[in-house]
């Protein structure tokens, strides 16, 4: 199964549209569209993005990554994501 398909299934199982998930997480709807339709892009997502998405799905980051068969994130945040974020623990 393609990673994008698993991401779409996860969204559907939680009743999220791309727009609603974007509103909840602050992740751009255009990025969510790419994650849903192109399997390689979610692998490049940052830890901050994965934390936001995992929280919306009521999952730990590690579980989110495992569910989508993602390697651990290598980038914590992009310049747009830096700010008042506190990462207590990376699991």
Describe this structure in words.
The chain has 91 residues and is mostly helical. The protein has one domain (3-67): 434 Repressor (Amino-terminal Domain) (Orthogonal Bundle). The protein contains 5 helices and no strands. The chain has helices spanning 3-13, 18-25, 29-37, 47-56, 61-67. The radius of gyration is 12 Å and the shape is globular. Mean pLDDT is 83; it is low at 87-91.
- Fraction in helix: 40-55%
Instruction: Please state the CA-atom Rg, rounded to the nearest Å.
Output: 12 Å
The amount of beta strand, in percent, is under 5%
Query: How many domains, in number, for the residues?
Result: 1
Low-confidence stretches: 87-91
Q: Tell me the total number of β-strands.
A: 0
Compressed to H and E, one letter per element, the order equals HHHHH
- The averaged pLDDT comes out at 83
Could you describe the largest sheet, including whether it forms a barrel? none
Topology, please?
Blueprint: H1 3-13, H2 18-25, H3 29-37, H4 47-56, H5 61-67
Helix pairs in contact: 1-3, 2-3, 4-5
Structure summarized in a few sentences:
By secondary structure, the protein is mostly helical.
Q: What are its keywords?
A:
single chain; 91 residues; mainly alpha; 434 Repressor (Amino-terminal Domain); 5 helices; disordered C terminus
